[in-house]
Amino acid sequence: MSRGLRVCYLGAYDPVYARNAILRAGLEQAGVEVVECRVPLETPIVLRPAALLARFLGLGRKRFDAFIVAELNPEIVWLARLLGLPRRTPVVFDIFFSKYDAGVHDRATVRVGSLRAHAFRLIEGAALRMADVVLADTAAHAGYYRRIFPVRHTRFEIVPVGADERLFSPAAQPPRSEGLCVAGFWGTFIPLHGVETILGAAARLRDQPLRFEIVGRGQTYGRAVALVRDLGLSNVRLIPPMEPADLARFARSCDIGLGIFGATPKAARVVPHKVYQAALTGLPVVTRDSPAIREFFRDGEHMLLVPPADPAALAEALLGLANDQARRRRIGGAAATLVRDCYTCTPIGRCLQRVLRQAVYSRRGA
């Protein structure tokens, strides 16, 4: 293939959400032309295919080498397959995470055995089978999809979520005159984040020179507010959600990055953006141990890993870092280098470009 690739990025998605922004920017940096065919997230699911078809027809007679179906859009993989039939255009589906798993098992917002649960599983299974390639963020997640859905012949490729180097970057922090160490967390308060574990650690460290700053809102936020109140945690500050640029500045103001600590099965299969972002900023990160995290980072070298849902172990790890600035710099520096070289837009874009070329050749032949 002599010319550069041109792909259609299809779906109802938020273009500034980190997963989408990183994939698109990485592809463009790798020389791939990315044409967006997008409708707002607020578009009802039943109306999305017609709305996307109208957008696609409005693009004119552009020839695409591949379709990329954006994260959390299993309902429109069939449309991409249909649009690609005339030229045998391959379809790459970025499942990112399973709506079935998230709703039924992780967040428990969908009842097991309900019609909605069956619909999620049916739609996602069909999408995984229809796609030529499915992008998974970890090998642990790919293994889960193979177990839970009948997709033994589906081709999975691992493309980690990474961090956007255009926003997150290391910043040397001057020593704090008061000797206070700030541990920062940001997220959407879903169960796998384990914010209650962070607060349990804060309760154990209330008399230590360590402050917890927690950014975000979400499902478990009400419980977090109640815990802060009931435990009298004056060393914890709950902060409203921030825009990405403000969040990057917040990260650079911290001394330690907090990852995830939940004990849900999904928590063992993911490495969320916040872990890569904090690491790229140069923060020493403490997060839960899991098969997924060990796919990309080494305990004690790139970050500190603790058992899930264990406030005492988290408190011990944080206190050790708070009292050892040299160790913080060593671990933070090693992680920042690794993420910069392997898990930012540029290397992720090169990885996805290779996946696309293989998909094109497999579908059409060299």
Provide a descriptive summary of the structure in words.
The protein has helices at residues 18-29, 48-57, 77-84, 99-106, 115-130, 139-148, 195-204, 221-231, 244-252, 273-280, 311-322, 325-342, 345-364, and strands at residues 6-12, 33-39, 66-69, 91-94, 133-136, 156-158, 181-186, 210-215, 236-239, 256-258, 285-288, 304-306. It is of the alpha/beta class. The termini are close together. 49% of the residues are buried.
Mean pLDDT: 94
Mind telling me the C-alpha Rg? Answer: 21 Å
**Percentage of residues in strands:** 15-25%
Give the helix tally.
Answer: 13
Biggest sheet architecture: 6 strands, parallel
Helix content: 40-55%
Annotation, overall tally of beta strands = 12
Given as residue ranges, the uncertain stretches (5+ residues, pLDDT < 50) are: none
Structural class: alpha/beta
Shape: globular
Neighbour order of strands in the largest sheet: 2-1-3-4-5-6
CA-CA gap between termini: 8 Å
Q: Topology as H/E string? A: EHEHEHEHHEHEEHEHEHEHEEHHH
